[in-house]
Amino acid sequence: RGEQRGAPGRIAVVGGGIGGSAAAYFLRQKFGRGVRIEVLEREAVGGRLATLEVEGEGYEAGGSILHPLNLHMKHFVKELGLSAAPVSGSLAGIYNGEEFVFEESSWYIINVLKLLWRYGLNPLRMYMWVEDILDKFMRIYRYQTHDYTFSSNERLLHALGGNDFTRMLNQTIDEAMQKASFSHKFINEVVCPTMRDYYGQGVNINGFVGAVSLAGAESGLWSVKGGNKLVCTGLIYASKAEVISGTVLSIEPKTRPRSTGDPVNLYQVTYNTMAGVTGDTYDIVVIAAPLNSKIANITFKNFNPPVPEFSSPYHQIIVTFVHGRLNTSFFGYRDPSAFRFGAIFTTENPKLFINSLGVVSPVEKKGEGGKLPTQLAVWKVFSGEALTKEQLGLLFSSYDSVKVKKWLAYPHYSPPEKCPPIVLHDKLYYLNGIEWAASAMEMSAIAAKNAALLAYHRWYGNAEMIDQEDLYEKLKTEL
Ligand SMILES: Cc1cc2nc3c(=O)[nH]c(=O)nc-3n(C[C@H](O)[C@H](O)[C@H](O)COP(=O)(O)OP(=O)(O)OC[C@H]3O[C@@H](n4cnc5c(N)ncnc54)[C@H](O)[C@@H]3O)c2cc1C
Ligand SMILES: CC(C)=CCC/C(C)=C/CC/C(C)=C/CSC[C@H](N)C(=O)O
């Protein structure tokens, strides 16, 4: 047990996205009512969870879908009195730039036969492969329920899936699936389009984020009625944290004398507000924004040893909402009435200027069933670069409104991957390193709980709760 027993006075959370708002919520749970928690946010609470208005209705422009086993997000929705709505699926087609290599049917049995015919047992084996990974991944909830925490992302992943999980960070999903004897055809025509849709990158992304994408293609997906960002505002409200509108510029360690005479270690956080540059001191700081010069460009002053620089790039994604009619002949269908796909995925082809496109429903009408693709509908197009007028003209036979959102969306994955540290300094924690394993809402929530538990156990010197080996076996016998 350590020397510091009194509760901390003030905690700063930098960033009000799902990571920061969940951190505020879990920090409140752990440290209790006495601590003052401030969330410093430079833009809107929600961060990469945001809606965009098209034709008077809101649509998810950032993080949109959740897995049925994303248990933190499920718990938040229940706790905050929000509603989960199923993501309505449309018929999917996989387009290779010349033709559709796979066309989903509305008949389940036809799909099974088509998949078997083209890919043999690959789809079934993939399902089992992903379930095995998901099973191990689910161990995190048990560890966190028992208050255990990890001081690095690698240790966290190792505690879930041993060397198999850490190895997945060092190889591409292509290599991982080839080693598991999946066919090239299946990887190129089914796995790659999923990666392109979800992470805007092909099968060269790391095996772990690849497996997360494949889990994200399972059934039972859902989203939050009214918009996923409602979870962030709800969590901040529930945590009774104060939101300060400002851009954090720098963080610096300071030692101040206490009234008792002993020195106390604090962090000076300097931020820019509408009223000018100001700042405050905090006992604990949690950074819940990507430390990248193009995103949260924070200077760490006078740290010894210095806080390392994280220069790895984030991947640009452009989300374009188009209210219009699809030009089905672009996809080789001269007769629009024969075109039934409301979700189009693409294989790797340099000629293609889009990653995917699909018909979407407004956040208030989630779960009500989508429009037919040939009707006037709102299409959500994912691409690496902004679409030109000419490209929009190729994709749509007519359209009346276009809304664009540009994101530095998620890490540009390039294995072997090393996740940035969680502990940047004594009581300075960083959540977004986990994104280098996989970027998803639930991953940020897991990182937030892990950081809150870590901050708590390190503050009170509970070393036995941190980085425990063989937790899975230990907790099995604890039942
Ligand atoms: C287009 C898109 C689609 C996605 N789809 C899905 C999906 O379907 N399912 C899923 O699970 N995930 C999805 N994701 C990923 C998911 O949205 C992110 O992993 C998650 O939202 C990250 O949350 P975060 O709180 O960690 O970071 P952010 O949401 O980025 O939050 C960081 C916050 O910090 C603020 N900030 C940054 N710098 C500073 C500073 N210096 N001072 C003060 N504030 C600062 C930012 O304004 C931001 O609000 C998607 C992401 C994108 C972009
Ligand atoms: C963390 C675990 C175990 C599962 C998460 C699975 C999941 C829901 C992954 C989705 C990740 C993601 C970045 C999706 C982006 S785009 C999705 C789609 N094109 C859309 O916008 O609807």
UniProtKB/TrEMBL annotation:
Keywords: FAD, Flavoprotein, Glycoprotein, Lysosome, Oxidoreductase, Signal
Subcellular location: Lysosome
Primary localization class, coarse: other
InterPro entries, sorted: FAD/NAD-bd_sf, Prenylcys_lyase, Prenylcysteine_Oxase1
Domain Prenylcysteine lyase: 102-468
Cofactor(s) annotated in UniProt: FAD
Domain of life, source organism: Eukaryota
Reaction(s) catalysed by this chain's protein: S-(2E,6E)-farnesyl-L-cysteine + O2 + H2O = (2E,6E)-farnesal + L-cysteine + H2O2; [(2E,6E,10E)-geranylgeranyl]-L-cysteine + O2 + H2O = (2E,6E,10E)-geranylgeranial + L-cysteine + H2O2; an S-polyprenyl-L-cysteine + O2 + H2O = a polyprenal + L-cysteine + H2O2
Any Pfam family the entry gives: NAD_binding_8
GO biological process per UniProt: prenylated protein catabolic process; prenylcysteine catabolic process
Record GO cellular component, one term: very-low-density lipoprotein particle
EC number: 1.8.3.5
Entry GO MF terms: FAD binding; prenylcysteine oxidase activity
Class in the EC hierarchy, top level: oxidoreductase
Gene3D superfamilies noted in UniProt: FAD/NAD(P)-binding domain
Its job: Prenylcysteine oxidase that cleaves the thioether bond of prenyl-L-cysteines, such as farnesylcysteine and geranylgeranylcysteine. Only active against free prenylcysteines and not prenylcysteine residues within prenylated proteins or peptides. Involved in the final step in the degradation of prenylated proteins, by degrading prenylcysteines after the protein has been degraded.
Similarity comment text for this entry: Belongs to the prenylcysteine oxidase family.
Full protein name: Prenylcysteine oxidase 1
Organism this protein belongs to: Anser brachyrhynchus (Pink-footed goose)
Organism lineage: Eukaryota, Metazoa, Chordata, Craniata, Vertebrata
Gene transcribed to yield this protein: PCYOX1
